[in-house]
Design a protein that fits this description.
The chain has 3 domains: 78 residues, no CATH class; 201 residues, Thrombin, subunit H (Beta Barrel); 99 residues, PDZ domain (Pdz3 Domain, Roll). Strand 4 and strand 5 form a beta hairpin. A 6-stranded antiparallel β-barrel has the order 3-4-5-8-7-6. It has a 6-stranded antiparallel beta barrel with strand order 9-10-11-14-13-12. Strands 16, 17, 18, 19, 20 and 21 form a 6-stranded antiparallel beta sheet that branches. It has 434 residues and is α+β, with helices and mostly antiparallel strands. The longest helix has 29 residues.
Length: 434
């Protein structure tokens, strides 16, 4: 669970305020040279007269201002490195016409504020609420457990799931239930009722799993055609971010992109900026009608990333969970049993080799193990169709099932520069990719 962070906003005031104080005249007769007594008396009388005239003029000016007040503008002389600031201060006259505050006692009846009834319901006017009301009964919280020592069972974590049938089949992520295949899971519905669930099957390649609870009459989710979603349409995520105490939380965003390859190539994800947090895994990504368009699974995490979550498209979810319910594992996906890495366009130009997949390991169970194919060979095509990376390889293998034969075109890189490179074909049967 992620720690909640709180940032305190700090307000800075660059200025400063000075109170207006009367100017105190210096006593010149204390600081100036002494003069003759007679001249000093005349100077003092003259200075006093001028001072009285100035005071009288000031009093008359204030009187003329009346209740309008007088505005004084001061230029700060404080030298503190800050730009000078100008402030205004107003002298207010007392207004005897202002009435006193009312003398009342508490009213036990109160102000009688009423609530205005609206003609239409919230769901009719708010697409987010409509989507939530349609989908939330089908989204559950999943608490997973893993077996400990001495028959102890330890809570492993919280995630989310989607009710896919009214008789209790629930889809989720394989990483949500991976440690609970032997111990089972706890399912909490939107109304708070709880059921013990059994893990029916998992597929780590797509990060999908199916759980079954003993229940009937459940609200099964409606699935949309993920091939018809588009960038920019509204998308909403429902799940349990932060665990069960935040279950059935709704976040709003958009479809940021489609057919995103994040890792492996087994899934072409829907990218969304709807907030997805730990605990959202296995929950629903829905459209404005509340129909499931994907299963939330991963997000990019880091100070450099924000709003990059990913969901498995609904069409692929339906395909995988149907097979998991039927067999408990995936039986229809074929593979050639290798490990490899992509040879990029740049690398191919630098090394003067074709683009494709560089074989780094051939498993003993692979049909290539006894073939002429060797490690460091580059797969460049399947049945004549150019292959440039793993995503294209997996896309092409989807057209076949285990047992079907395919023809691989390989580029052999010789160990010595004196030996010319070789291109050859190998025909092999696919094995099951569970």
């Amino acid at each position: 669970m992620e720690n909640l962070k709180e940032e305190n906003a700090v307000s800075e005031q660059n200025g400063f305020t000075e109170n207006f104080m009367p100017y105190e005249f210096e006593r010149y007769y204390d600081v100036m040279p002494k003069r003759k007594r007679g001249n000093s008396i005349k100077a003092l009388l003259w200075f006093s007269s001028v001072f009285m005239v100035l005071i009288s003029a000031l009093i008359m000016a204030m009187g003329m201002a009346g209740s309008k007040g007088v505005s004084f503008v001061f230029e700060s002389s404080k030298d503190d490195g800050l730009p000078s600031n100008r402030y205004s201060q107003t002298s207010y006259a007392t207004n005897t016409d202002i009435s006193d505050a009312p003398d009342v006692s508490a009213d036990i009846n109160g102000p009688q504020i009423s609530v205005t009834e609206t003609e239409s319901s919230i769901s009719e006017t708010n697409s987010a609420n409509r989507a939530y009301m349609n989908a939330s009964p089908s989204v559950v919280n999943i608490t997973s457990y893993e077996a400990g020592t001495d028959y102890a069972v330890t809570k492993s974590g919280d995630g989310s799931g989607i009710i896919i049938t009214s008789d209790g089949y629930i889809s989720t992520n394989s990483h949500v239930v991976d440690n609970s295949t032997d111990t089972g899971v706890m399912i909490t519905l939107v109304d708070g009722s709880q059921y013990l669930g059994t893990v029916i099957g998992i597929d780590k390649k797509t990060d999908l799993a199916v759980v079954k609870i003993d229940a009937s009459g459940l609200d099964a989710a409606e699935f949309a055609d993920s091939d018809k979603i588009y960038v920019g349409q509204d998308a909403y995520a429902i799940g349990s971010p932060g665990g069960a105490r935040f279950s059935n939380s709704l976040t709003k965003g958009t479809v940021s992109a489609v057919n995103r390859i994040v890792s492996g190539g087994y899934v072409k994800y829907i990218q969304t900026d709807a907030a997805i947090n730990p605990g959202n895994s296995g929950g629903a990504l829905i459209n404005s009608e509340g129909h499931v368009i994907g299963v939330n699974t991963i997000k990019f995490v880091g100070t450099d990333y924000e709003g990059m979550g990913f969901a498995i498209p609904s069409n692929q979810v339906i395909e995988i969970v149907n097979e998991l319910i039927k067999y408990g594992s995936i039986k229809s996906r074929g593979t050639i049993g290798i490990e490899g890495k992509n040879c990029s366009l740049y690398e191919s130009k630098v090394k003067n080799v074709p683009q494709g997949i560089i074989i780094t390991k051939i498993y003993v169970t692979s049909p290539l193990y006894t073939s002429p194919a060797k490690e460091n060979d580059i797969i460049t095509a399947i049945n004549g169709i150019v292959i440039r990376d793993f995503a294209e390889l997996i896309d092409e293998l989807r057209h076949f099932k285990p047992g079907d034969e395919i023809t691989l075109t390989l580029f052999h890189v010789p160990e010595s520069k004196s030996i010319p490179p070789d291109t050859f074909d190998v025909t092999v049967p696919l094995i099951n990719d569970e």
